[in-house]
Amino acid sequence: xxxxxxxxxxxxxxxxxxxxxxxxxxxxxxxxxxxxxxxxxxxxxxxxxxxxxxxxxxxxxxxxxxxxxxxxxxxxxxxxxxxxxxxxxxxxxxxxxxxxxxxxxxxxxxxxxxxxxxxxxxxxxxxxxxxxxxxxxxxxxxxxxxxxxxxxxxxxxxxxxxxxxxxxxxxxxxxxxxxxxxxxxxxxxxxxxxxxxxxxxxxxxxxxxxxxxxxxxxxxxxxxxxxxxxxxxxxxxxxxxxxxxxxxxxxxxxxxxx
Length: 258
What we know:
Layout: H1 6-26, H2 45-60, H3 63-79, H4 85-93, E1 97-98, E2 108-109, H5 111-136, H6 142-159, H7 166-183, H8 189-194, H9 200-207, H10 209-217, H11 220-224, H12 230-257
Antiparallel strand pairs: 1-2
Helix pairs in contact: 3-6, 3-10, 3-12, 4-5, 5-7, 6-7, 6-12
């Protein structure tokens, strides 16, 4: 849709967001009682920055939490490539091919269409598998979930560089998505029981550094693709995943001995 019906797609997105705005504004009501609202929350901007920075500085002195943040950045590096390097790779390196192999008269897919199918398959798998997979793995330890999810996401992304067949790419997407799903239930549960009760809000806020720094680091794969071959880029992505998994192992070793 983006490549063939771009204007219609953008107008559709705008319409959906407008309907969402109307729903929120006219139907959803505030549930917080007036008596619970603070009377005056205005503080000087300088004081706000100083307060937040002192909180982050205190949290980042926590060695276990610091390892957790760095491991999260490394593990998110492969996950974020779905929106960054993977479209570049697929569009530039995956040829037009039939949806059904050995049937050249079947539905032909261009590289742009193939990427759209992969993203759609990723979203469909997430919706279908998130509940059964989460329920199936609820007895797994956080350590095992973090390590396995990181390796599956990195491994699934790495395998993309080995074959351009669309069904092979669907298989890679399945592996990648399983890693993404396994990570979802434990991303904040660890902080929920690790952080001190009086500082839990600060820890959860600092946990967002994973996404912020990960989004800043992940586009480097696109920049590096200008002088590194695709298999080299996928190897770097896999190395980030391996580093993230090793850091998670170190994290839980320290946490269990603390």
